[in-house]
Amino acid sequence: MAPEIITNGTDEQCSRSPAGKSIADFPSNANNIEYARSLDACCPLRHFRNEFIIPSKSNLRAQSLSEISASPMTDSASDAGIYFCGNSLGLQPKRTSAYVQNLLSTWATICVDGHFRPVADSPLAPWQDLAESASKLCAPLVGAVPSEVSIQNTLSVNLHLMMASFYRPTAVRNKVLLEFHAFPSDHYTIESQIKWHGYDPDEAMLLVTPDHGKYTLSTSELLATIDAYADQLALIVLPGIQYYTGQMLDIPLITEHAHKHGIPIGWDLAHAAGNVPLQLHDWGVDFAVWCTYKYLNSGPGSIGGLFVHERHGKVEYADSKSETGHDTESANRPIYRERLTGWYGGDRAVRFNMDNKFIPIPGAAGYQISNPSAIDLSCVIASLSIFNETSMQALREKSLRLTAYAEHLLLQDVPLIDGETAYKIITPCNPNERGAQLSLLFKPGLLDKVGQGLKSGGVVADQRKPAVCRIPPAPLYNTYEEVYTVVRIIKEAVS
Ligand SMILES: *Cc1c(COP(=O)(O)O)cnc(C)c1O
């Protein structure tokens, strides 16, 4: 079911004090490495860490491949680095290399037959079935029926394809609502689609901004904006989780509101997929797109995912007989939602007939265009097979506690500079309004110091200029002890 999202939770409603509203209350000895270790020791998901290659501090500093020790995996705790960058590029699962090796072996041995012929002891289906295997594994993570998911292309390309189908502007109704601080690629995609249709982005892009002095978007403000522009809006595109602030939007509420006005809505789930439980089918979302290399750990630039609701994937036929009882040419033509097409979206039974009569596969797979990369799909399947050994609910439970622990420690004895705290957390304090990530906004001039401190402590975490550092503990492989250490390093760096 939908996570119990509380809308309009604002800083006023939940105090940032350590004793404030929090998913987990921590005891007075929480700021202690022994306490952190005790949480790890009783964590029911702790064995998943062993499924990942945790980089060693020495490998993180390597300048050449030959410098990297024979085995890239470190099992020596003292040399283990701390990886807090799963929101950007997830760690490599240990099993990925075996999956990819299987693919390479099949290609090297049975060659073109690998498309169709099953290989008994391989963890991979024939290549023609890999996209479907990946969709099946991904569907429970986003709360979809498997046929509503397609693993194809990359996020921005999929957003273009979805807009080609769902953005049908008219002279009156041509605006797209998005957020002011959208990820650049999303902004460019929407801007160029508007131009492509011959409209002016300055007029047609409706950017919602946070209230003055705030960092996060207000749900009521968003809904009011939709109301105000309802008859001019052709489409809404929003992030499930905002990449910079870590704010999670109320997907079901906003989706329902858009639909009340008959406006289609698509969600960018780059930072939500594999991070929080989603129920895209039940929420009635029109479409969604995500990448698989962030929380989904499928490798740099790996193939992306998309969701198209069942109601938009139908392929129907008019009655095969006309009223006079004769077959008609038009009656046999499939009826489906318009889209940009390619041969891989075509019905597999007739795909290789090469007769140039396009009949889409029902569901999201009918939005495919090209033959997908089998290497990418092998990486996705390897990674998703780990997710499928647990559930998003179990991962979310741990994630809530890990992030609450980070927040708890960060808010204790915050170093002061000229009487002001060295940093503040700009991510919503309400756990129902965020995923794994906390975004710290530092006082001017401190970010570089923090970056240096983290680097010399063997921590990988990203800094977004001018002043934000994002801390996204990933429940599959990060530990409470790592959270403890990272917070200690950050505080030391700014003291
Ligand atoms: C990571 C990310 C992307 C990446 O797009 P690609 O097409 O995979 O390069 C796009 N949008 C958002 C919001 C992201 O966080």
TrEMBL record:
- Ranges for region Disordered: 1-21
Reported cofactor(s): pyridoxal 5'-phosphate
Location(s) in or outside the cell:
Cytoplasm
Name the enzyme group at the top EC level: hydrolase
User: What are the UniProt keywords, alphabetically?
Assistant: Cytoplasm, Hydrolase, Pyridine nucleotide biosynthesis, Pyridoxal phosphate
GO process terms (BP): 'de novo' NAD+ biosynthetic process from L-tryptophan; anthranilate metabolic process; L-kynurenine catabolic process; L-tryptophan catabolic process to kynurenine; quinolinate biosynthetic process
Modification N6-(pyridoxal phosphate)lysine occurs at:
K294
Instruction: Report the main location listed first in the record.
Output: cytoplasm
Q: Which Pfam families match?
A: Aminotran_5, KYNU_C
Presence of the UniProt keyword Hydrolase in the record: yes
Which Enzyme Commission number(s) are listed?
3.7.1.3
Return the SUPFAM superfamilies for the record. Answer: PLP-dependent transferases
- Composition bias type Polar residues, residue spans: 7-16
Question: An example Gene Ontology cellular component term from the record?
Answer: cytoplasm
According to UniProt, this protein's pathway is: Cofactor biosynthesis; NAD(+) biosynthesis; quinolinate from L-kynurenine: step 2/3; Amino-acid degradation; L-kynurenine degradation; L-alanine and anthranilate from L-kynurenine: step 1/1
Which InterPro entries does the protein's record reference? Aminotrans_V_dom (IPR000192), Kynureninase (IPR010111), PyrdxlP-dep_Trfase (IPR015424), PyrdxlP-dep_Trfase_major (IPR015421), PyrdxlP-dep_Trfase_small (IPR015422)
* Molecular function per GO: kynureninase activity; pyridoxal phosphate binding
As its record notes, the protein acts as a catalyst of:
3-hydroxy-L-kynurenine + H2O = 3-hydroxyanthranilate + L-alanine + H(+); L-kynurenine + H2O = anthranilate + L-alanine + H(+)
* Assembly, per entry: Homodimer.
Function noted in UniProt: Catalyzes the cleavage of L-kynurenine (L-Kyn) and L-3-hydroxykynurenine (L-3OHKyn) into anthranilic acid (AA) and 3-hydroxyanthranilic acid (3-OHAA), respectively.
PANTHER family linked: KYNURENINASE, KYNURENINASE 2
Q: Which family does it belong to?
A: Belongs to the kynureninase family.
Q: Which HAMAP family match?
A: Kynureninase
The name under which this protein is listed is Kynureninase
Q: Which organism is it from?
A: Exophiala spinifera
